[in-house]
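Lab notebook, bench 4. Still working through the backlog of constructs that have no structural model yet. Next entry is a single chain of 304 residues. Request: give me the structure tokens for it.
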Amino acid sequence: MSDKIFKSGFIGLIGRTNVGKSTLINKILNKNVVITSGKAQTTRNRINCILNADNAQAIFVDCPGFFKPRNLLGEKLNNIIYGVLNDADIIVVMIDLAGGIGTGDYYVFDKIKNRSQPKFLLLNKIDLIKGKEKGGIEQEVKELQKEFDFFNCVIPISAKKGNNVDAFLKILIEKLPEGPKFFPDGTITDMPLNKMIAEIIREKLINNLFEELPHSINVEVENMTQKTSKSGEPLISLECCIYTEKKSQKAIIIGKSGEMLKKIGILAREELEQLLESKVYLQIWVKVMENWTKNDSYLSRFGY
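Model written out:
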């Protein structure tokens, strides 16, 4: 039996929308566990993503990005973030260094600066900094560490390319408290399978529709059945429903002659077959649920 101390803890990964939090988690786990896009409200849930290391287990808690709520859904998403902050052993704030520090970042800093947990500041997207500017990154790190001295450490990274991610993980694991193994070896997320399926479909919608429409979309898996194809191969039959708020939105999702919905189905099925390691028969319907983002009972039904 090893006499080494086992460390574990929950790492709250926060920041404004679109700074690359979910991209970082997928890079750390070397698997597309959480969906990503360049649009706000991509992440809507609190998702535990587990990294098992030698004598340590780091649970990264992915959550929605901070933004100004426009409806009841937005308020509930911000409440998820505050819950993560209260439960986290370590707080990691990510900003988009290439895009510059904005008012949204200062808002996040203000929310965490007086908290007692160890705090890290990640400067993401250094791969987008032009060559002549790269020499200034080290100086900027020093300046930010001085200006925001409530952070224990400031680390420049590229979540997409993986630059400095290993260095960040090494320092992070050193800061983890002594604790038990919360999840069995081999577990990378506690997200239910039906939710993972729904999120894959929602990701395809987000990445193929107009800017505002994804905020009004939710996806549910209504039925999942193990079957056998005509050739005798295992087949998983999925019946899923896309909910949106208006008839006009439904028409956009379906597209002319059903082309958009067909495209979404093809893209989703390809990824679902990898996830489920099986052939997939996917049926998708689109239904209107008026003003679901403003209705507490609808939001409760969807798990918010």
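Notes after review: The chain has two domains: 7-175, 193-301. The mean pLDDT is 87. Flag for follow-up if needed.
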